[in-house]
Amino acid sequence: MAEELGWEENMLVELARAVAYPAAPDLRSMVAARMVDPATPAPQRPWRLAAGALAAIVLAVALTLFVSREAREAVADFLGLGVQGERIEVLPTPPAGTTATPLPTPVLLGSIAQKVSREDAIRFSGIQPKLPASLGAPRDYFLVGSDPALFVADYGQLQIWEFSLADEIFIGKGLIGGGDVVQSMMVNGKPGYWIKGGERIVTVMGSDGKERSGTQRTVLEPALVWAEGGLYRRIEGPTTLEAALALAAEMR
Amino acid sequence: MTPERDDSEIVAAVLGGDRNAYAELVGRYQQVAFRAAYLILRDSGAAEDAAQDGFVRAYQSLRSFRGGEPFRPWLLRIVTNLALNQVRSRSRRLRLFERVGAARGSLVEAPVDDSFLSSDQQRQLWQAIRELPDDDRIILYLRFFLELPEKEIATVIGKAPGTVKSRLHRAGGRLRTVIETRYPWLQPVAEGGGSRG
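ok -> structure tokens follow
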């Protein structure tokens, strides 16, 4: 920088000297903690942990349900596999002699999402969707959330959800209840889940561990979820696994 | 007294199974990583997250790090990309709410934090820099604020070392244009009263 500088460069030098940076935190222990398991999510600040824990407690209390041993075992079976962007938890079993609180009434997609044009759905989600040609054009497009938004193509009886894993913003959190079966499998060569059987809660969680406001749904239809090409993908509503896999293959 | 190990020796030790050695690299470069993220994000909490994520990702990709190369620019490339991704996410969110109207939820975009500058003139110059394209801003941050040599800048921006000088020149020229057109009062007054440069 000792060479001839233009006036704008001299201004930059002076400005750089004037910057009062906040004290840099000591990251060594936090980084070391995450090095134990490369897949461990970022440790959260205490207030975030508290907020996340509170949200989890509220959900757990509100959604106290029976759950079958089979479902629990199914979840345990694929804990080591995992679909990036998806978390599945089993609803707690209520004590003997108590009655489970019913799940919330299912809501329409339009009540938790913003209906938009195809162009806006792509622009604001950052997703360039590759949708199954065999389904024809979606009936509607929706955006869920805003940080950034999830992309949803709605075909009426079937929906396709996508979001970019690069943003590390969203985690689909499924709380499965009694009668649900979760089957782990490969979808387009990537780990995936086929979930069917009963009612379940699906909500969008931020990477801060907090539920994205207004995104909780009760889902009855089967769903195929997997992560591929940097995207989380979810086909909700196919009646059979074979049909779901065929649609997934078209999205490859 | 044990002489300080260079980056490549530490990386070799980590890859050889001495995971604790990585803390030496974190301690060595956490300030510059934090500052790089802070310049882009202007939020200390977000900058801390980006710097921390950068170190973790660098660790996960350590086998792709070429021995003999400096660790700092390789790390800064990861950190600046993470920080830029955060900015783009925020930006998409803001555009969404502007365009779609956001019937539900409340969005309050964090105001630009320029409290780290003490004078109005500095804040206006900072604003002028913010109006530049990402590539221009980043290269100016690297050169003038983080004082990286051109060779390291080349690694961070992923370009050939020979192009850094011309890219710096181009970014400086664009900044000059922004100042001349939008913040003309920031230009230095030459002897005789006119602007120079």
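Chain A touches chain B through 45 residues (CB under 8 Å).
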